[in-house]
Amino acid sequence: MLKRLKAKAGVSGRVNPHSFRHNFAREYLRNGGEVVTLARLLGHEDVNTTAAFYAVFSKDELQSQHMKFSPISKWFEEER
Questions:
Q1: What are the CB-based long-range contacts (under 8 Å, 24+) for 64-72?
Q2: Is the dihedral of CA 50, 31, 70, 67 positive or negative?
Q3: C-alpha to C-alpha distance for 53 and 63, rounded to whole angstroms
Q4: Is 29 exposed, middle or buried (0-12, 13-18, 19+ CB in 10 A)?
Q5: Is the pLDDT of residue 39 over 90?
Q6: How many domains, the chain?
Q7: Could you list the residue range(s) of the whole structural domain that residue 14 is in?
Q8: Which H, E and C letters describe the chain, residue by residue?
Q9: Nearest partner of 30 among 73, 3, 68, 79, judged by Cα
Q10: Does the pLDDT of residue 6 top 80, yes or no?
Q11: CA-to-CA distance for 20 and 49, rounded, in angstroms?
């Protein structure tokens, strides 16, 4: 079923239950979700498992997250 839907939608790359789970986890973290909460949602007993597989960010992603969530960044925005 997933192969048919993939072809119909013109999607490239992997399409399987594991890739959906992985992409959900990555987007959850990119959108500001906490790794501890994600670990619980995924059923991981050890948060280090979740961090090792999903909390791996590129330099650009880290900079974006820092600008989005840092209290210091928000302080500089208020001065503008």
A1: 65/30, 65/32, 68/32, 69/32
A2: positive
A3: 20
A4: buried
A5: yes
A6: 1
A7: 2-79
A8: CHHHHHHHHCCCCCCCHHHHHHHHHHHHHHCCCCHHHHHHHHCCCCHHHHHHHHCCCCHHHHHHHHHHHCHHHHHHHHHC
A9: 68
A10: yes
A11: 18
